[in-house]
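Q: Given only this backbone (216 positions), what sequence would you predict?
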């Protein structure tokens, strides 16, 4: 589990990134590829609940996913959704994206070909990726309307499901840095960062969780 002395700071970052959007009927659900197969599970659940009639799974591989998903994230996500009863006719895969910006850009281009440039979209991601995904999508696909969704579980349950607390903390720290850094680079819409979030981030960096930081 998360070390006790770090728990408050980790929870602060967790709560910051979890946007807790209420579901809304959309044109399409976009499952963002990652190491977390729970994204595909949640996408299938929302499809079966009737929140969108079609799905795009997007993602090639990153260094953290190539061993788990050797045929690509989107391909494995599609196969998992099929196992959960989503019809193949409802799923499109985008297999070239290697980061969140490309997830958005390539999905936008794919849906524009289908007349859905101005779509309403539910972005399904890891719980702690929601804020960054939304900020990226609003910058790179301004014609669309977005909601965010993720597996609904506590920090403790999520860490248990991943089985690697250090990995979760490292990813949380990396995503927190990217909120500010990507806005500075023009990759994403700026987001408010409360002082308590910034301070928690700095303490976790000082504690050594720097493996997902990008150079300043």
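A: Predicted residues:
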């Amino acid at each position: 589990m998360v070390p006790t002395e770090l728990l408050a700071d980790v929870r602060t970052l967790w709560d910051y990134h979890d946007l807790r959007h209420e579901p809304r009927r959309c044109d399409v659900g976009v499952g963002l590829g990652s190491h977390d197969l729970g994204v595909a599970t949640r996408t299938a659940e929302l499809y079966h609940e009737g929140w969108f009639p079609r799905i795009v799974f997007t993602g090639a591989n990153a260094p953290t996913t190539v061993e788990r998903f050797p045929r690509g994230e989107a391909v494995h996500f599609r196969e998992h959704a099929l196992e959960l009863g989503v019809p193949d006719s409802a799923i499109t895969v985008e297999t070239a994206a290697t980061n969140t910006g490309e997830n958005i850009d390539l999905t936008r281009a794919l849906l524009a070909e289908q007349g859905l440039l101005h779509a309403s979209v539910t972005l399904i991601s890891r719980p702690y990726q929601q804020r960054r995904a939304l900020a990226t999508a609003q910058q790179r696909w301004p014609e669309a309307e977005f909601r965010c969704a993720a597996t609904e579980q506590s920090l403790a349950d999520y860490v248990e499901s991943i089985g690697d607390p250090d990995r979760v903390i490292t990813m949380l720290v990396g995503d927190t840095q990217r909120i500010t850094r990507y806005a500075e680079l023009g990759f994403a819409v700026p987001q408010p960062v409360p002082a308590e979030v910034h301070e928690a981030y700095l303490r976790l960096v000082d504690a050594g969780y720097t493996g997902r930081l990008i150079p300043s």
